[in-house]
Backbone:
């Protein structure tokens, strides 16, 4: 079970990191959401894994899992929602103002509301990689 | 106690002027004056004790571990300075009432003045160097506000900025010096430090500490080469100049020299640094002052020169030097404040401060002219006025001092300085109040109202009285203040006008005659001066600032080129490399903890998760599909929480999941539905490598944690043991949230509320400017459903609404003892509301909603806060919870806990925040749509075929 959780966290982190390195705002937001999952599960798991030991006091229970990481993660889940909501709206506003959803300043200069044409021959997002 | 009150009074009083200005300018000035007067009375109440040689102390421990304590002490030196600050402050407050015009915001002026006054009093009464530094920085900040008071004037703003930059930088250097000093002595108490003079001077850290502290003193007291800020600070209103540059701000540097004199003075290094700087600045500034045509410019440079005189006297390191220095502080404060005020009167009455445009004012303004002449004669050092006495003492000390073994050079320089001083002082009289009157004035000038000339007139009283009877009037004050500076017995001295016919008197007379002659040949002297190039300090300063800004911009541009991807890549790579280095630098063994066996269903779920992650990366360009996959991941995470004994987390995760997906869908409505392929293959490979390494690192780390037991005992056992007896609930997670860690939760719902309001602000702004044009011309880029408000959905959500609300209440109420609570209940209720918006449209729902969600956030935070405050009433710390059991007929026995009220706050904030965020997003969508339909759905089930108009 430990290996499953650890590899799951690793996979979610990797997917999240890959997506936050994309050039458009939407994948970055999704990547952050994935990272939130990964971090939340990570923190939760620091209380170690336990089956059928919910931290609810009762006479019949023999033992309990660690409640503290759960309390921390519960608030973290709600806060990550708040954060996601803010950046989604930020991205939306930026797109509505500029007609462009690129995350790099100067990567695209499109004035129109339409996304710039997909042109792999001269990728605008590569500016900083090649030029500096 | 009342020592602290003297310091705190101006700060507390600073609340008054802003309010009192509504009752008029007189009331405002009166309120401000009363504050200062009260502080002054409190101070004077200590006079008998101080003059008896006592040191009054007040002490509170603040951060004893850092040596930072709130400690004040009042000895002769502190008494002298606090008296000057408050006494002259009182006169300035009166003067400013008449000086400021109706257009100037007077309330603000007095607020700044009192803040500055409090900071100054704090500096001179602090007994802890760290506390002193805090007040020191406060003087820099508040003087910035005062100098830049006329913020519409560019000179005012530039002068204020320059003053802040120079004195602030000096202050930073001084912090380092003071810390070194504290390090040497082992205590940050000034009263301790000044007892350890020899120990400090033997320390190898003495030289760096001294130089750093002197940097602070010299910048503050405008000594060469930092003198240039003071003349530019003259752009301030004259009451500010009179206050800052006679008795307070610039005297802070001098004060510190005096305060630390027993600890630092007496070495060669001290002498050559302090006395030389003082002597040079004195002569140089006096020479420049002679040629300033601006009245306040002349006074500014004369101030620099006289401060330098005091610096020089302290720099000598002899008790006699210290006595003369203290005496001159008193004298300079009195005549210089009077001079600034008369300059302000002249400016106020004639509309100019240019000496070339003035002259012959004595006949028109006899009172002002007399006050100004007496003060200027004192500044020149004419006998029978107080300036004469200290100039004699200074010349006497200078003539007795050798510099690097050369006799006479110090005395000569001091005499030359005195000569220039005489010359510019006479010029202030002769070229303004005597001589040829200019052709015409716009308004014939006359003496101002009494409120304006009385303050300088009052200051002339000590100028004359000390000049006539020095020992009787100033003797005790000088003795007790010098005693505090020297920290030991004073040598025999007597303050008198006549010391016999000696070299000092000759030098003094030569200076008087030479100064008068120099003024007579002023034009030639000016021509002589203009032959030499003169560096313009302001231009140099600004070019330095400019080049610093350019450098900073270049560095910033190089580091942040606006590419988020680059920043992200660097950040993640740095974390990965840092983790890898730490990992390789330590030993590793296999974990000893016994694992949990993996059931087949767990393996299956895991496989779906891994598949979802791969699919997400592979299909991330299709944004709608991306959302579906994210939903899958979220559900699996929720399932994982259920499986691993975290029912609360599972409930929270699944409800957040729903809200998040709705949010992303609403946003995606307006965003492009596809992500274009922009990255080159190498770049994708590079990103993939970074991502894989990051995933490996994080996964490996948690794997290592999971295979080990707790290194130190966990604090969770406390929570488990105390949840029921202490918190009154069996659901430990909920009890932690609302009770043990209630303060965290309180902060968190505030953050959530702020996030929701930020969303509101962002989207509300989108309804203006280019964004709204784009929205209005927006054409749906995908085929839309013909039936926008389907009947099935509408009916189902209506039926579900009361049920969902009931579920919300149920989850909320059981939360303390079973999985549930405010967070989850809030999300459930929010979803139930959102479904109404989705089913019948924003416009329709908005008309029927009677709840203001913004208010709901506010009430939520308040409810949680009041619950916490309630504990105070019971005499317990913030957010202490309590609970009791109540028995009601029919219902039975149940528990009431204050934590429940707190959870209500959480609930309200969560509902409010989610609704504000999502409702505003859908409001955006409405701008693109047709007028709001009043029907809940597009199909009307009551009618068959024919439209309503035809029927009616």
Residues:
């Amino acid at each position: 079970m430990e290996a499953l959780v650890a590899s799951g966290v690793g996979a979610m982190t990797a997917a999240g990191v890959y997506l936050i390195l994309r050039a458009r705002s939407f994948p970055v937001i999704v990547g952050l959401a994935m990272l939130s999952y990964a971090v939340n599960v990570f923190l939760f798991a620091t209380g170690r894994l336990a089956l059928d030991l919910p931290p609810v006091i009762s006479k019949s229970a023999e033992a309990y899992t660690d409640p503290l990481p759960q309390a921390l993660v519960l608030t973290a889940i709600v806060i990550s929602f708040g954060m996601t909501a803010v950046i989604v709206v930020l991205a939306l506003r930026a797109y509505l103002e500029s007609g462009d959803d690129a995350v790099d300043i100067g990567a695209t200069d499109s004035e129109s509301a339409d996304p710039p044409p997909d042109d792999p021959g001269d990728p605008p997002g590569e500016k900083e990689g090649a030029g500096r | 106690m009342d020592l602290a009150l003297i310091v705190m009074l101006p700060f507390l009083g600073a609340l008054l002027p802003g309010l009192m200005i509504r009752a008029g300018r007189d009331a405002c000035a009166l309120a401000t004056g009363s504050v200062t007067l009260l502080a002054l009375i409190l101070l004077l109440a200590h006079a008998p004790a101080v003059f008896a040689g006592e040191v009054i102390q007040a002490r509170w421990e603040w951060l004893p571990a850092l040596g930072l304590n709130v400690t004040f002490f009042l000895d002769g030196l502190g008494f002298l300075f606090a008296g000057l600050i408050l006494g002259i402050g009182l006169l300035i407050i009166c003067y400013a009432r008449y000086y400021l015009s109706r257009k100037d915001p007077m309330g603000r002026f007095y607020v700044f003045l009192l803040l500055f006054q409090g900071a100054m009093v704090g500096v001179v009464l602090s007994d802890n160097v760290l506390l002193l530094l805090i007040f020191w920085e406060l003087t820099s900040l508040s003087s910035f506000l005062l100098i830049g008071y006329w913020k519409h004037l560019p000179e005012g703003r530039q002068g204020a900025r320059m003053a802040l930059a120079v004195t602030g930088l000096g202050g930073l250097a001084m912090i380092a010096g003071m810390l070194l000093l504290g390090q040497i002595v082992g205590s940050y108490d000034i009263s301790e430090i000044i007892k350890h003079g020899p120990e400090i001077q033997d320390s190898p850290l003495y030289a760096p500490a001294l130089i750093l502290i002197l940097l602070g003193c010299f910048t503050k007291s405008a000594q060469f080469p930092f003198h240039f800020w003071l003349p530019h600070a003259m752009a301030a209103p004259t009451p500010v100049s009179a206050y800052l540059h006679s008795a307070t701000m610039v005297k802070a540097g001098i004060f510190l020299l005096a305060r630390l004199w027993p600890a630092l003075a007496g070495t060669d290094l001290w002498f050559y640094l302090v006395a030389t700087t003082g002597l040079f600045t004195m002569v140089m500034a006096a020479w420049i002052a002679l040629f300033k045509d601006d009245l306040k410019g002349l006074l500014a440079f004369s101030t620099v020169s006289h401060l330098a005189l005091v610096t020089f006297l302290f720099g000598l390191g002899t008790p006699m030097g210290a006595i003369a220095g203290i005496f001159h502080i008193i004298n300079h404060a009195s005549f210089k404040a009077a001079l600034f005020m008369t300059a302000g009167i002249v400016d106020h009455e004639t509309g100019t401060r240019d000496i070339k445009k003035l002259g012959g004012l004595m006949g028109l303004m006899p009172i002002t002219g007399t006050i100004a002449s007496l003060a200027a004669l004192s500044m020149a050092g004419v006998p029978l006025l107080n300036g004469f006495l200290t100039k004699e003492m200074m010349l006497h000390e200078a003539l007795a001092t050798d510099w690097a073994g050369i006799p006479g050079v110090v005395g000569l320089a001091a005499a030359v300085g005195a000569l220039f001083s005489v010359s510019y002082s006479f010029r202030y009289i002769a070229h303004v109040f005597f001589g040829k009157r200019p052709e015409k004035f716009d308004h014939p000038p006359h003496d101002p109202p009494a409120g304006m000339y009385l303050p300088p007139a009052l200051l002339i009283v000590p100028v004359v009285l000390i000049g006539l009877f020095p020992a009787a009037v100033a003797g005790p004050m000088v003795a007790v203040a010098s005693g505090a500076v020297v920290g030991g017995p004073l040598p025999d001295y007597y303050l008198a006008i006549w010391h016999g016919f000696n070299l000092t008197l000759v030098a003094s007379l030569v200076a008087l005659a030479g100064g008068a002659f120099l003024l007579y040949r002023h034009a030639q002297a000016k021509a002589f001066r203009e032959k030499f190039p003169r560096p313009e300090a302001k231009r140099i300063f600004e070019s330095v600032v400019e080049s610093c800004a350019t450098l900073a911009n270049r560095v910033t541009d190089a580091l942040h080129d606006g590419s988020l991807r680059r920043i992200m890549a660097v950040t993640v790579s740095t974390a990965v490399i840092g983790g890898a280095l730490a990992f390789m630098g330590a030993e590793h063994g296999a974990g000893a903890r016994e694992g949990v066996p993996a059931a087949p269903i767990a393996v299956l779920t895991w496989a779906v998760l891994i598949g979802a992650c791969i699919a997400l990366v592979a299909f991330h360009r299709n944004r709608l599909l991306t959302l579906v996959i994210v939903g899958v991941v979220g559900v699996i995470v929720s399932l994982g929480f259920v499986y691993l004994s975290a029912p609360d987390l599972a409930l929270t995760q699944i409800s957040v999941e729903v809200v998040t997906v709705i949010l992303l869908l609403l946003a995606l409505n307006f965003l492009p539905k596809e992500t274009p392929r922009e990255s080159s293959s190498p770049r994708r490979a590079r990103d993939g490598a970074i991502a894989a390494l990051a995933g490996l690192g994080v996964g490996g780390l948690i794997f290592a944690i999971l295979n080990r037991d707790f290194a130190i005992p966990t604090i969770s056992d406390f929570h488990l043991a105390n949840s029921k007896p202490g918190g009154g609930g069996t659901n430990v997670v909920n009890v932690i949230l609302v009770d043990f860690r209630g303060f965290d939760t309180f902060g968190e719902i505030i953050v959530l509320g702020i996030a929701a309001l930020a969303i509101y602000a962002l989207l509300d702004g989108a309804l203006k400017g280019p964004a709204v044009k784009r929205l209005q011309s927006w054409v749906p880029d995908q085929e839309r459903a013909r039936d926008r408000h389907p009947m099935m959905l509408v009916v189902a959500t209506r039926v579900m609404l009361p049920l969902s609300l009931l579920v919300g209440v149920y989850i909320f109420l059981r939360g303390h003892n079973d999985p549930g609570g405010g967070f989850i209940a809030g999300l459930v209720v929010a979803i139930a509301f959102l479904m109404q918006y989705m089913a019948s449209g924003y416009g329709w729902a908005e008309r029927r909603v009677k709840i203001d969600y913004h208010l709901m956030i506010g009430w939520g935070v308040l409810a949680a806060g009041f619950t916490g405050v309630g504990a105070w009433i019971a005499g317990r710390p913030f957010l202490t919870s309590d609970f009791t059991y109540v028995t009601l007929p029919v219902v039975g026995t149940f528990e009431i806990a204050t934590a429940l009220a707190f959870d209500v706050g959480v609930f309200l904030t969560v509902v409010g925040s989610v609704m504000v965020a999502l409702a505003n997003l859908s409001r955006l969508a409405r701008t693109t749509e047709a007028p709001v339909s009043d029907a809940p759905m597009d199909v009307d089930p009551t009618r068959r075929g024919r439209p309503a108009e035809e029927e009616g």
